[in-house]
Structure formats: C-alpha cells, structure tokens
Design goal:
The protein is an alpha+beta fold. The chain has 4 domains: 266 residues, Phosphorylase Kinase, domain 1 (2-Layer Sandwich), CATH 3.30.200.20; 28 residues; 174 residues, Nucleoside Triphosphate Pyrophosphohydrolase, CATH 3.90.79; 182 residues, Nucleoside Triphosphate Pyrophosphohydrolase. It has 21 helices and 25 strands. The strands form 4 sheets. Strands 6, 7, 18, 19, 20, 21, 22, 23, 24 and 25 form a 10-stranded mixed beta sheet that branches. Strands 8, 9, 12, 13, 14 and 17 form a 6-stranded mixed beta sheet that branches. The protein has a 5-stranded antiparallel beta sheet with strand order 1-2-3-5-4, covered by helices on one side. Strand 1 and strand 2 form a beta hairpin. The longest helix has 20 residues.
C-alpha cells in the first residue's frame, strides 16, 4: 500500500500511544476486522464524475508534495470552508490504485482517519478533498523529535469489531485488491521508522541481504513484531491478523511498556541508515504538476469569459511596450528598446556583431550507440516494445532518434494516463470555403506507379519547426493545392486546436498524437480563368493538384455531402491538453553506469572540488546540462542555452529583459536576451517557440523565425566534471514580428503583468 493511502489526522502526533492506535487501525483494515464505518449511513457527498474540482473549490497554496501527488489547501466557493485536496498524479500511479485509495478513503469513518468531502476526476488528477490539519505530519514530527519525547506508552483498547465484516463486505474490492504480504512489509518499514527515525534499508541490495538490527531502547517485543513484518520471504511474513494478535499490540499487557528512553535523541545520533524522511520529489515531476494545475486553472477561467475578460489575450505580450512575468523563482521585466542603442551594449555585443563561430545548423551531440541505447531503455520503461521497431514496414529506433532530434516529432507524456509515452506531430489543417459556402476536400491520391489511395480529409500538412501557422498554410496552398495564396483570406485570429491520437504503424506500440491547428479561410477570385481552374463556378466541382509525383483529386462539396462521404467536418476545440514534456536525465545509479560505459572514472566525483554524481544527476534531470559524446566519440558535458533576438522591423526595436527581481526583493538590472536552457532531445527552433509561449507569453504564430542559427561555443576541462570535456554553447536565433499579423503595440508607460507557472 502507499503510505498516503490511509490519511491519519495530523494534529495528533504528540504521543507514540496514538501512533500505535493508528497502526492498529491500518492492520484491522488489512485483516478485515475493525469497525471503520459509523453506525449510520455515511453522509459524505461524493461529487459526480463529470464535475471538476474548480467548479466547487478555489485553490490556495501548496501544503506538501510526495511521489504520488501534491496536496493543496482549498476553500469551498460557497461556504468558504477550508480543506486540503490531495491531487493524485495519474502519471505516477495506475488509475486502479488511485480508485482503490479514493474508494477506501470515501468509505471510512474513524476518529483517527481524515474525512473525505468529495472526489473529483479532472483530466490529469484525481482530486480527493479532505480535512485540513495544521499539526504537521509524522515525518515532520519525527524530524523535530515530537514523537520521541514520549517516555512511556500504554497500549490502549482497540475498537470493537462487532459490525466490521458487515461494513467491509459492502466494499469487497478494497480487500480483494489488497496485497497483504506487500502491505504488511510497507507497514513494517513505516513502524521501524517510527521507533528509530531511520529506514531499515538503504537500497535494493540491503533489502535482499541485510539483517536488520534494533537500537537498545526498542523493546524486545516491539522488535520481534517489526521483524515478523519484515521477513524477506513472503511465506514466512506475518499476516495483518497475526500482527494484531501480537502481545506488543493486542492490548493484553497489564503494565506500562518502556518503549523509548529519555536519552533517545543522543543515542539515536549514531544509528546506521538513512534518516526517515520523505524522498525528494524529482524537479521535472514538480514542474510538470505545477504546469498541469496551471492549465486546470486557465481552462476554468476561459470557460467563463465574464470572470476573466483577458483570457483570450493571454499570448498578446508582443502588443505591449513593456511587461513583466512572474515565474516560480523570480519576476522578469521586458521592454522594447531601439536596436541602434542595443548595439552599444557590451552585454549584447557578442550576440549582435554578426559573426558566426559555428555555421553548421543543427549540430549537437552525436547520436552514438549509447545514446540510442538510452532511448531504447527509456521507451521500454514506458511499456513500448522496441524489438518490433525496424521489422517489416516499421521504422528503426535510430530513425525515431533522428526524427526527434530534427524536431519532426517529439516524445511527450500523456499526463492523463499512467506512464503513457506518445509521439507528437504538429499539423496545420485548412478548412477552406468558396463563395457558395462549399468546403474543399482532399478526396484521393493518384501515384505515378498507378496506385490510388482514398483520403477523404481536409487539406493539411506537418508544421515545420521554423514555421508559424501562416507560413505552413501558405505552403499547403502552393505545394499541395497548387493554389495562389493571394486568392485566399485566412482568419488567423480564430484557430481551433485539436488533438487526435492514432496507432502508428511506423513505430508499433507508440501511439502518435497529431496536434492540429485548424485555420479557416475563403477562396475568392473574379478572374474567369482562375474560377474555372480551381472549380469556383456554380457548376464546377474541383481540380487536380500535383505534388512530387502524386496527383490529388480536390473537390468542393457542401458540409452535408462531406459528412456523407465520411469526412471529419465538425471540429471542436480540445479541452486543456494533457501532453507534457517527457522526463529527461539519469538517476544517480543510471548515470554511474552510463559514465562507466563511456570509460569515465566515476570515483573522482565528489572529491577535490568535483561535483558529486547526485549533483550531476540533478543537473541532468533539470535539463541544465546534458552528457554524451561529440562527433569524435569524446565524452562531454554540454550546457546549451538558446537566446532569442526578437525584432520589430516596423519600429526598429528589439525585445530585451532589463530587470530581474528575485526572492527577498533582490533586484538585478542587466540587459539580456530572452533565453532558456535547451533540453537534450529538443530541437532548437522548438526551444525558441517555447521561449515565446512559456517565458514571454507571445503567440509563436505572430513571429517569423529565421532558419540560420548562430552558435557561440567554448570547450574546456574543468574539475567540476572529471573525465568530461565541458562544452558551453550558446545558440542565437533571430525572430521578427510577422508584418502580416496586426500588432498595434500600445504606447503606454504602464507595465503590464502576467502571472503564470513556467512549463
């Protein structure tokens, strides 16, 4: 069981006696005994499945975070009552396990178990609203020594089990899905920590081989009971019912048991083992959860425009003379500055002097066999059988690696499911109408070898990494439809976003999500020849277009005719996307194995000023650096930053960050370009779009990216990374506001503010 499955009231952590009583409650649940429901029917009203948390509660602040989810404070919108909401992460926990916990908490009614006020099923979280207690949790109490100050413990009387079987028989799924041996083991680990403040084992090796020892202050009967719970062979391990009957816990002892001595804290300082404390949550996991919760809140606001009149303008910062954005760690201030003044700034001179240190666009770490092996391991960890890649018509693993590196696709997590990895392809789809309000449909493809393939779809194409939506739409018109863009007027202010998931035969087991941007346009011409060529007349029906040896049959038809031909016409905008960046980096053990494979002496880390392997692992997980080999096979560690030079050609100005306000109101004034670290699997132009959308809140479709990338690179040895050459690389990408997209930048001295969670 997860430690968080039974939520004990946190206000009562002052004595070991209450903790013993709570342990007994859990054992009664596992053994099928104990009256855990009230004598009357429960009055807890669980919200309907289709209802969302934010329809009923307003989120406050983060109370805590663990491996399986995050806990926020929340206030009921109507009553104002304050509660805690546990938002269980669907990525980290199988949905069946989440449902078991939710159902268990919902049905329990016991003084030592928090009360459930509602369960809400949002896209990426199962939200369990419960009592909020301010007394801290057990781990915090252990760290502060609250539990250890108890000098004696008298085991109290357990609840009468008179109606236990009747009550629990109503919820047989809880008992059937409970793995008694595994859960007793987990409780044994927890109990060991409660009485020693240490974990009994440091890692898997000790779990298999270590014989646990107890400090002298632990009573013999207590040590015996815990040892019974931590038997390595499941067949020899005590059951929950056995533990309940154990003399230390069953309440039959008539005298006070001295569990802890007053000298505990001093004696405890020499114990072997890791401190009993919550494991640090992965940086990427925390960032992912904050991103998804931010999306929840933004989606809730956009569903009620009256409550948030600026919701439709969230990505309009390019229209403002200056603005600031509040991230998790700092407040960043930006403004447009005349370009001729910036060229005199020493801090920006190296980005603007026009010299190119490295002119090979797209160069980065080589995809050497170890890198492909890491990709293979990553895919298999997400239940994708890579052995099927490269077989028959399927593409190879190397092809997928190259595809991701080029930006043609990317690997992302579907946060609405447990460890579900998907391949994401960005697509632009055109919904074109003529003057008769007929819709253009791509009906069939004719190939040069005589083959024909029915398509029956709206015209579309993959979106290149350097393109905005207008550029892709015009490319579709010219290359796919052989249609002059001058004949088409697009409504670029009304773009529908939609996600469609399909099983891709190119990579078996790896589903592809086509992330579509659907733009509507009208085709018009008064030229009779063009009307005839493109079927724009009343009696005309369409035309044929040629593209790279393929002829397309394009046909105008009413929407009713298109629906009858099984064309997907009705397009609805998708709800808040559940797609998030896939986890990156290597855990410490994985990093050790990888560096050893690269012939790097890992024993040098953590010595004489070198970073520890844990520190390097943290940097990899955060995306601050990446480890691999250069084109010559030399092991390197790379810090790569993408800088974005955004110009407004109409005004002759460039966007710069001019101030940063950190914690404690510590201000740092310095002119710099908008920038961010590039993740190892990320194409540089996708990084530029991420800067626009996430860091600047500017719609990437209002900007034109130049395809040439300037690279400033420095290589050196450093004591921080023994055995690795440190490569410091800065990429400079130039962008211009699209002159065909109206901007009307405001002339105001006021600074506009947008607060968001950086993703």
């Amino acid at each position: 069981m997860h430690y968080g499955q039974i939520q004990f009231k946190k206000a009562h952590v002052g004595s070991m006696g209450s903790t013993v009583a709570k342990l007994r409650v859990v054992l009664q649940i596992l053994s099928g005994n104990g009256d855990l429901c009230s004598g009357q029917e429960q009055v807890i009203q669980v919200t309907a499945l289709q209802s969302r948390l934010l329809d009923h509660y307003k989120l406050g602040g983060v109370l805590g975070e663990g491996s399986f989810g995050v806990v926020w404070s929340c206030d009921h919108i109507i009553t104002g009552e304050e509660h805690a909401v546990k938002m269980v992460d669907k990525v980290e926990t199988p949905f069946t396990d989440i449902m078991r916990e939710a159902e268990l908490i919902r049905t329990l009614d016991h003084p030592n178990i928090v009360k459930c006020f509602g369960i809400f099923f949002d896209n990426c979280f199962v939200c369990i609203v419960m009592d909020k207690f301010v007394g801290g949790d057990v781990v915090q109490a252990l760290q502060e020594g609250q539990l250890m100050r108890a000098k004696s413990v008298r085991v109290g009387k357990r609840p009468e089990p008179s109606h236990a079987k009747d009550r629990l028989s109503r919820y047989p799924v809880n008992l059937k899905t409970c793995n008694d041996e595994v859960d007793v083991w987990a409780l044994g680990v927890l109990t060991f920590g409660l009485v020693t403040t240490k974990f009994p084992f440091k890692g898997e090796g000790e779990v298999r081989n270590k014989q646990i020892l107890f400090p002298p202050y632990v009573h013999d009967e207590c040590a015996e009971m815990i040892s019974m719970m931590l038997k390595k062979e499941e067949g020899q391990r005590a059951s929950a019912a056995d533990i309940l009957r154990h003399p230390w816990l069953d309440g039959t002892r008539k005298t006070t048991t001295m569990l802890l001595q007053t000298s505990f804290l001093s004696e405890n300082s020499g114990l072997d083992g890791e401190s009993f404390q919550e494991a640090e949550v992965d940086h990427e996991v925390t960032r992912r959860r904050l991103s998804l919760i931010d999306r929840m809140q933004q989606e809730h606001l956009t569903m009620d425009p009256a409550a948030n009149p600026t919701a439709s303008r969230r990505l309009m910062n390019h229209t403002k003379n200056q603005f600031f954005i509040q991230t998790q760690d700092a407040t960043l201030y930006y403004k447009w500055i005349p370009s001729n003044l910036l060229r005199k700034q020493n801090s920006l001179h190296r980005f603007l002097d026009g010299r190119t240190e490295t002119d090979q666009s797209g160069e980065c770490l080589s995809l050497s066999p170890p890198d492909v092996q890491l990709l293979d391991k990553f895919l298999r960890e997400h239940n994708i059988e890579t052995a099927k890649f490269g077989v028959d018509r399927a593409k190879s693993l190397q092809a997928l690696a190259a595809e991701v590196h080029s930006g043609a696709s990317r690997l992302m997590l579907d946060a609405a499911n447990y460890k579900k990895l998907v391949r994401v392809v960005d697509v632009v789809v055109l919904k074109l109408y003529d003057e008769q309000d007929r819709l253009l449909v791509d009906m069939e493809e004719h190939f040069s070898d005589g083959r024909r393939r029915p398509t029956r779809r709206l015209p579309g194409s993959k979106k290149e990494t350097t393109e905005n939506i207008r550029q892709t739409a015009e490319r579709i018109l010219e290359e796919t439809l052989n249609l002059d863009p001058a004949l088409v007027s697009f409504n670029l202010h009304l773009v529908i976003n939609q996600e469609e998931e399909l099983d891709s035969p190119s990579y078996p087991g790896l589903h592809t999500v086509y992330r579509k941007e659907i733009v509507t346009g009208t085709v018009e011409s008064e030229d009779p020849e063009l009307q005839k060529k493109f079927g724009l007349g009343v009696h005309a029906t369409g035309w044929r277009a040629s593209e790279r040896g393929c002829t397309r049959l394009l046909q105008w038809m009413t929407e009713a005719e298109a629906v009858a031909a099984y064309v997907k016409v009705d397009v609805e905008s998708s709800v808040s996307s559940s797609l998030v960046q896939a986890p990156i980096g290597l855990k410490e053990e994985e990093l050790t194995a990888y560096l050893t494979e690269l012939k790097v002496d890992v024993s040098q880390y953590g010595r004489q000023g070198a970073k520890t392997l844990k520190q390097l692992s943290d940097e990899l997980v955060k995306g601050e650096v990446q480890v691999g080999t250069d084109k010559n096979g030399v092991p390197v560690v790379v810090s790569e930053v993408v800088n974005l030079c955004i110009h407004d050609p109409m005004r002759g100005e460039m966007l710069c960050q001019y101030k940063q306000l950190g914690s404690g109101d510590c201000a740092y004034e310095h002119l710099s370009l908008p920038c961010t670290t590039r993740r190892p699997e990320e194409n540089e132009f996708l990084v530029a779009k991420r800067i626009l959308k996430r860091r600047l809140r500017i719609n990437p479709n209002t900007v034109i990216l130049e395809t040439k990338v300037r690279r400033l690179q420095e290589e050196r040895s450093t004591n921080a990374y023994p055995g690795l050459i440190f490569v410091e690389r800065e990429l400079v990408i130039t962008a211009n506001l699209d002159p065909q997209v109206p901007h009307s930048r405001m002339r105001s001295s006021k600074t506009s503010a947008i607060k968001f969670v950086e993703r």
